[in-house]
């Protein structure tokens, strides 16, 4: 299968590192023009260079804005009013006990992880509908179903992402615009690596070994028995955005290594 996205424009939020950057590289490699996004000019410039360095001849632009805010979304939409592919990847996470999470942290997680995608999808999908083609992907998580007791606020937002994607897919039924959520499991992004960095300090463990131990300790239902790589998640995102995925919509597509115990 050769995925070809020439002539398509993709926006990937939170794409300065991790899954977002890997997805930006994958979409660029398939021929799409990609707009990378992050909160600072330095970070998006580095991401733009990373995509250009990984994909010869890549068409890649950048835009710095915090899309976890209304103002950031509005600025992105004003600067780039059209896209064919929207990957709502931006997100925040981190362990915190339920009794220690203040209201403003619940709000910050919801604004960043959920409302960024809601606002951007609301802005970009009408033109996709007019064109009879479009792709929207929300980044969910296995934590949408396997709610982590040490990150209940995070799990709540990822469940919401899956719900919004499913509902929007139904709202756009028959238009040629597909909406899906992609659900990674524990993934060796920079954020997860930072969480487990203490596990390898002073040892000869590799990050991959520490990641596998983390999965086996904290996600024992994993069938893969290791953390996924960002490229593995990006592969699912790129496929979901492809012409070949035209019959896949309203789906929660798992790249969780089998963590969620269901059939």
Mean pLDDT: 95
Tell me the structural class.
alpha/beta
Strand order of the largest sheet: 3-2-1-4-5-6-7
Number of contiguous helices: 8
The dominant shape is globular
Helix content: 40-55%
**How many extended strands?**
7
Percentage of residues in strands: 5-15%
Low-pLDDT sequence parts:
none
Largest sheet: 7 strands, parallel
Kindly provide the radius of gyration, computed on alpha-carbon positions and rounded to a whole number of angstroms: 18 Å
* Cα-to-Cα separation, first versus last residue: 26 Å
Helices and strands, in N-to-C order?
Answer: EHEHEHEHEHEHHHE
Explain what this protein looks like in three dimensions.
The chain is 45% helix and 14% strand. It has 263 residues and is α/β, with parallel strands linked by helices. Strands 3-2-1-4-5-6-7 form a seven-stranded parallel sheet, with helices on both faces. It contains eight helices and seven strands; from the N terminus they run βαβαβαβαβαβαααβ. The protein has helices at residues 18-29, 41-54, 70-79, 103-131, 152-171, 190-200, 207-218, 230-240, and strands at 9-12, 33-38, 60-64, 85-88, 134-139, 177-184, 252-255. The protein is globular, with a radius of gyration of 18 Å. α1 (18-29) packs across α2, α4 (103-131) packs parallel to α5 and α6 (190-200) packs across α7 (207-218).
List the helices and strands and how they pair.
Elements: E1 9-12, H1 18-29, E2 33-38, H2 41-54, E3 60-64, H3 70-79, E4 85-88, H4 103-131, E5 134-139, H5 152-171, E6 177-184, H6 190-200, H7 207-218, H8 230-240, E7 252-255
Parallel strand pairs: 1-2, 1-4, 2-3, 4-5, 5-6, 6-7
